[in-house]
Amino acid sequence: MKNIMIINGPNLNLLGKREPGIYGSLSFTEFLETLKDKYPNIGITHYQSNVEGELINALQEAGFGAYDGIVLNAAAYTHTSVGIGDAVAAIETPVVEVHISNTFSREDFRHQSYVSPNAKGVIVGFGLQSYELAIQSFL
């Protein structure tokens, strides 16, 4: 059985409420249940924080053998956090960077990622389906 950790950054706890035109109307909790139902033979764990250091701690805790893969949506920290980028570089567990929206169709500052250079891959712009595509990449 594969074990996958999904780590979500700031404001993703507001999915379903926040800018539904960009992020949709489904909460992440609701979506997570559909993922678990669709992949019953995969252990899927989820962690969310609005705090940069807590995300780094979660990456470090998940990054050395407990999980087969990490799906990371660092949200706005993707574009600002050297620390999160360094944490991804420092761990052994492969990381797939995901974004719900197409970051390249948005503001210029969202075109920069400190995560991407050390990620196994990057998936952007497929809505919540981006998470499922990332999980499939570990199968």
From TrEMBL:
A molecular-function term among this protein's GO annotations: 3-dehydroquinate dehydratase activity
Write down the InterPro entries for this protein, in alphabetical order: DHquinase_II, DHquinase_II_CS, DHquinase_II_sf
Q: Has the keyword Iron been applied to this entry?
A: no
A GO biological-process term: chorismate biosynthetic process
Record keywords, A-Z: Amino-acid biosynthesis, Aromatic amino acid biosynthesis, Lyase
Q: What class of enzyme is it?
A: lyase
Q: Pfam families per the record?
A: DHquinase_II
Top-level taxon of the source organism: Bacteria
Pathway listed for it is: Metabolic intermediate biosynthesis; chorismate biosynthesis; chorismate from D-erythrose 4-phosphate and phosphoenolpyruvate: step 3/7
Role noted for this protein: Catalyzes a trans-dehydration via an enolate intermediate.
Q: What is its EC number?
A: 4.2.1.10
Q: What is said about its interaction partners and assembly?
A: Homododecamer.
Q: Where is this site: Transition state stabilizer?
A: 18
**In which residues is substrate bound?**
73, 79, 86, 100-101, 110
Protein known as: 3-dehydroquinate dehydratase
- What is the reaction catalyzed? 3-dehydroquinate = 3-dehydroshikimate + H2O
HAMAP family given in the database record: AroQ
List of catalytic residues: 23, 99
Family according to the record: Belongs to the type-II 3-dehydroquinase family.
Q: Does the keyword Amino-acid biosynthesis apply?
A: yes
